[in-house]
Design goal:
The complex is a heterodimer of chains A (113) and B (120). Chain A contains no helices and 13 strands. In chain A, strands 2, 6, 7, 8, 11, 12 and 13 form a seven-stranded mixed β-sheet that branches. In chain A, strands 1-3-10-9 form a four-stranded antiparallel β-sheet, with no helix packed on it. A two-stranded antiparallel sheet of chain A has the order 4-5. The termini of chain A are far apart. Chain B has 120 residues and is mainly β. In chain B, 0% of the residues lie in helices and 49% in strands. Chain B has no helices and eleven strands. The chains are: A mainly beta (113), B mainly beta (120). Chains A and B meet through strand 7 and strand 12 of A and strand 10 of B.
Chain lengths: 113, 120
C-alpha cells in the first residue's frame, strides 16, 4: 500500500495568518498518461464526517473558499490555508487514489493560537 | 441535493456480525461508486472497500477481504456493509462515501457515520 505521511501532526496559527500542511507519499501518485496527481485533501471537524476540499492535488471542490489551495506533484504535496479563520479549526487529511487501495495520511490538527 | 443517511449506533459482542446501511438520495444511484471508510478512535481514516456502480462488483481492502461484504439494493437506493467476526479492534465510526464519478476514488459526499462498539 502507498503510505501517506503528513507533517506536522499539529499546528497553531493566529487568526488571519497562513497555515501550511505537508503530505508525502511513499511512491509517486502522478499518473503520467494524463499528468494528474491522484491526491485529495479533506477537512474533518469534531463529530462530523470528512469534507472534500481539494482533489487532483489542486482542484478546489465546489463551495470551498479560495483561501484553501493545494499544490505539489509526484510525492510531495501541500495544503495552504490563507487568512485562517476560527471556523478552520479541524483535522486535515490527505488521501491518495492512485492505487485502488486508497490510503490516508494520519491527519494534521489545526488550532488557533 | 445528494444525501447519504446511515443506520444508527450498533453495539455487538466479539465474534458477532454487523450490517450497516447507507440510504442514498438526490442523484442517479447506479451512476456512482460507493465506498466504505472507517475511523477508529484516534486513528486515521481507513478505506474498507467499494462497490462498482456498473456491475455491482465489490472490491475490498486486503485487510478486510473475507470479513467484509458490501452489497446494494438498487430499488431501495441503499448500500450495505456487513462485517463479521468482530473484535474490539473493529470499534469505530463507519462511513459510506459516494465517489465523484463511476469510480475515481475521490470521496465527494459522506454519510453522517455509524458508531460500532464491540464489547463483551
Amino acid at each position: 500500500d502507498i503510505v501517506m505521511t503528513q507533517s506536522p501532526d499539529s499546528l497553531a496559527v493566529s487568526l488571519g495568518e497562513r497555515a501550511t500542511i505537508n503530505c508525502k507519499s511513499s511512491q509517486s501518485v502522478l499518473y503520467s498518461s494524463n499528468n494528474k496527481n491522484f491526491l485529495a485533501w479533506f477537512q474533518q471537524k469534531p463529530g462530523q464526517p470528512p469534507k472534500l476540499l481539494i482533489y487532483w492535488a489542486s482542484a478546489r471542490e465546489s463551495g470551498v473558499p479560495d483561501r484553501f489551495s493545494g499544490s505539489g506533484s509526484a510525492t510531495d504535496f501541500t495544503l495552504t490555508i490563507n487568512n485562517v479563520q476560527a471556523d478552520d479549526v479541524a483535522v486535515y487529511y490527505c488521501q491518495q487514489y492512485y492505487s485502488v487501495f486508497y490510503t490516508f495520511g494520519q491527519g494534521t490538527k489545526l488550532e488557533i493560537k | 441535493q445528494v444525501q447519504l443517511v446511515q443506520s444508527g449506533t450498533e453495539v455487538k459482542e466479539p465474534g458477532a456480525s454487523v450490517k450497516v446501511s447507507c440510504k442514498a438520495s438526490g442523484y442517479t444511484f447506479t451512476a456512482y461508486a460507493m465506498h466504505w471508510v472507517r475511523q477508529a478512535p484516534g486513528q486515521r481514516l481507513e478505506w474498507m472497500g467499494w462497490i462498482n456502480s456498473g456491475n455491482a462488483n465489490p472490491t475490498y481492502s486486503q485487510k478486510f477481504q473475507g470479513r467484509a461484504t458490501i452489497t446494494w439494493d438498487t430499488s431501495a437506493t441503499t448500500v450495505y456493509m456487513e462485517l463479521s467476526s468482530l473484535t474490539s479492534e473493529d470499534t469505530a465510526v463507519y462511513y459510506c462515501a459516494r465517489d465523484i464519478s463511476i469510480i475515481q476514488g475521490v470521496f465527494e459526499y459522506w454519510g453522517q457515520g455509524t458508531l460500532l462498539i464491540v464489547s463483551s
